[in-house]
Amino acid sequence: MRKDLIAGNWKMNATHLDAIQMVQKLSYRLDPGDYDRVDVVVCPPFTALRSTQTVIEADNLRLRLGAQNCHWEASGAFTGEISAGMLQKLSVTYVIAGHSERRQLFGETDEIVNRKVKAILAAEMTPILCVGETLEQREAGEAESIVARQLAASLAGIPAEQVAGLVIAYEPIWAIGTGRTASADDAGTMAGLVRETVAERFGVATGEAVRVLYGGSVNPGTIASMMAKRDIDGALVGGASLDPDTFASVIRYWM
Fold first, then answer.
1. Is the pTM for the entire model greater than 0.90?
2. CATH 3.20.20.70 applies to domain 4-251
């Protein structure tokens, strides 16, 4: 049975001092039973990773530490970049790859995302692979073909046993930071497409094992209907994860 996973992507927000307070406040609002039901991941900016790691380990919190990005090379002359191995040494367990903002604002291609996914796996961490269409592509009836193409290219050359352990986030680009959210039915349909595409390429067992998240202006008012869909196993949460009270409400979606 797939365990739910809810990840908070803080994006370019929060200093390392802010991060300490945010993580502590979030931990106060969650009960042990919440962690039994949901894997909770926080993805602060690079400058706050060490402080967040220290709080999690010192207070013996059951939060998982994630990073928002990494470079595909292990080391080298890549000024300003961070390798997967550097993140692994900070006890990072999840790394986001191919977020729509990286694709749109920084020109990341499916090939680049594929290289990052492989680097994350090589460092023994779990990628949160993001896929999703633009509003223009959806209105043109191309959403399914775009997402299927992104999956095929981003997972090229990765064995089925590793794909089974991945997290894949369907995040329609038109719903990222806009306040617009896909309907639960649309999100469920696209999550089903993700699972079906993985199953076709890597086998039915792999398709059933992979965890599929929804991302796109998730909030306490929308999360329950999303989680009711068979193929949605959690959420990649943006702005709502910056407030511990709001994020806790998302995590405890069944209450």
1. yes
2. yes
64 with 27: CB under 8 angstroms? no
Question: CA nearest 70: which of 28, 127, 10?
Answer: 127
Rounded-to-integer distance, Cα 170 and Cα 39, Å = 18
Give the model's confidence band at 181: pLDDT under 50 very low, under 70 low, under 90 confident, else very high: confident
List, for residues 32-64, the tens digit of each pLDDT value.
999 999 999 999 999 999 999 999 999 999 999
Q: Is 81 a catalytic residue?
A: no
> Using one digit for the tens of pLDDT, what is the confidence trace for 111-133?
999 999 999 999 999 999 999 99
- The catalytically annotated residue of 71, 99, 101, 108 is 99
Q: 101, 108, 133, 171: which is the annotated catalytic residue?
A: 171
Spatial CB neighbours of 147, under 8 Å, sequence gap ≥ 6:
131, 132, 133, 170, 190, 193, 194, 197
Domain ranges within the chain, ordered by starting residue: 4-251
d(CA 174, CA 74) in angstroms, rounded, equals: 33
Q: Is 16 part of the annotated catalytic residue set?
A: no
